[in-house]
Structure formats: structure tokens, C-alpha cells
Amino acid sequence: MKEWEEQFRAFLRGRGLTFTPERRAVLEEIFAEHGHFDVETLHDRLRSRGSRISIATIYRLIPLLTESGMIRPATLRDGHPTYEHLFGHRPHHHLTCVRCGKVVEFRQEEIEKILDKICGRHGFSPFDYRLGVRGVCAACRKEETG
Amino acid sequence: MKEWEEQFRAFLRGRGLTFTPERRAVLEEIFAEHGHFDVETLHDRLRSRGSRISIATIYRLIPLLTESGMIRPATLRDGHPTYEHLFGHRPHHHLTCVRCGKVVEFRQEEIEKILDKICGRHGFSPFDYRLGVRGVCAACRKEETG
DNA sequence: TTGCGATTGTTAATCATTCTCAATATAAGG
DNA sequence: CCTTATATTGAGAATGATTAACAATCGCAA
Ligand SMILES: [Mn+2]
Ligand SMILES: [Mn+2]
Ligand SMILES: [Zn+2]
Ligand SMILES: [Zn+2]
Known about the structure:
homodimer; about 150 residues; Arc Repressor Mutant, subunit A; Dna Ligase, domain 1; 2 domains; two-stranded antiparallel sheet; 5 strands; flat; binds manganese (II) ion; binds zinc ion; DNA-binding
């Protein structure tokens, strides 16, 4: 059994909830590929694999997946949230190209150290850093100028 | 005339748009107090001052205010966007307490320098950094533990 | 003053998300 | 195996914030 499945089952058990086929299918699909997804895309992907799952079920699952640490909100895409699987991945941040939508992930511990200091100075206990940089990627800039 | 009004008028003129009483009222209200506001709150504030302005007009104004540099999106509050006035203020970042909603603003040029380097490494031209830290403030933590 | 595009308020439409509800599935106990 | 009490699901209705349509005004330039 995949370790994320094990952890999610444990989470559900702890809440008196059950690990159903639908929940298994969603979990599998989330870890099937790396990248940012929104609810509708996830639903489409499941359907195209033959699942008859309802989109309402996926909406209902999002909070459970988040609270269990399976996924986290990633960025906003046209105003609605996208998510990414979290289990087994170090936290990271995002550069987003506002033209083509390309997303580059990067990791920077130095920044987090600085932020920890700032939080301490204000008496804050941080548990989540969200660092979004919006800009224009090299390809789009070339297209723009050229 | 307030300098932001002057700048907003210039922006509108450049687009062949007009500076109306409604637009003046909204602009005044935005600079009347410091803090993060959402569209509904702004509408309420205007109404409570006797204005009969429609909320649709405010929604229509948001893009113009953003593009002219009068405001910028700040953070999400319960899923919908909040804004803050920008003119005359240095960019800054936010610590948000997830319990009480308190927001602390801070400025950190060191981080921006690091991010510039990272962007350069990936060929990105950044034009906006959004740094959100979520955590628990001192007061809420005391309440929690105590 | 006239003419024309911009602006506004009202109202209807959109659209993602949430809710309702009746039908099933699940797990535990007998 | 049955039984029963909950949890879960899918379908479709409801919600609520945001946008769009539209007819009535407004503001500015000729
Ligand atoms: Mn990511
Ligand atoms: Mn702020
Ligand atoms: Zn690009
Ligand atoms: Zn607090």
C-alpha cells in the first residue's frame, strides 16, 4: 500500500470516517501526476479514466485532503483555487508567468529563516508561508519585445 | 487637490474616461482609512455616509483603480479578495492570524533582493511579490495554551 | 444647445461552490 | 448471515459573489 494511502486511511479512521472506492480513486489520481490542478480538472481526469464520480464528492473531499496533509492550496488560476499534492514533497514557492501561465517552482530556505525572525519579532507562530511571484517568463518576454 | 486624485484623474483622461462624483466618492473613501477592505465593506461605508452608489459601480471601478496604481489586491478573506490603497505607501507583506484575523504588515527588502536573484536565474522578470504568512498571533496563542 | 460616447442603477444572468435529499454502502454486533 | 445505525454518494436545486445587458442620464466638446 502506498504510504500516502496509509496515512490518509489513518486520518479517516481517527475521525470515524471510511476509506471508500471514490476516495481511493481521487487520492490515486492526485498522486498520479505532479502539477497544480483545480477541482474541475481533477474531475475530468477521473471521468476520462472511466470513473462516474460526482464533482460534489470531490468538493467534499478537498477539506479532508487538506486537513490530512495530502494536498495544499497552490495558487489562484483565474480566480479559482488550484491544489497540489503535498505528501512526500518539501514545501516550495512559485514563479508564475502572467502571460502564458507557466509556473516554476523553487525552494529557498534562506527566505524562510528571515521570515522566522520577522514572525518572532511580532510574536507570531507561523505555520504556512505563501510566496507568490508574478512576472513574465523569458519566452514571453522575447515574444513581446521581438 | 489630493495627489492621488490628481493621478487618478490623469489616468482616466489618458483613457478618455471621466472623473465622476461616484468615482470621487469611492476614491475618497478608499483613502479615508488605512486597512484592507472588500467590495461589500466599501459599499457599506459609502452608503453609511449617505451615498446612493450601486455596488456594481464599485465592482466596475476596481480594475481601473488597480491599473492606475490606486489600490492593489491584498489578501483573501474567506475566499474573496480584499484590497488596500497603494498610493504613497511602500509595498509590504502580511502576517495573518488564522484565529482572530489580525493582519500585521512588514517590509523586507532583503527578501526581495533574494527573490530578484532567483527570478534572474529562471529568466523571469518579476513585477509583483506576494508574500503571505499565516500563523497564530501572540494573543491567540496565549488564549489557546492558557 | 446639440450630439455622442461614457456612466450609472437596476435587474437579470453566470458560474463555481455548497446544500438537500433520497438511495446505497459500510462497519459493528448479534 | 441479518440488523441497524452512520456515513457516503450522485443528482439536482440553491446560494452568493461577480458580470453583463440595457435603458436612462450625464459630461464634454463642437
Ligand atoms: Mn507547486
Ligand atoms: Mn497591507
Ligand atoms: Zn510566459
Ligand atoms: Zn490572533
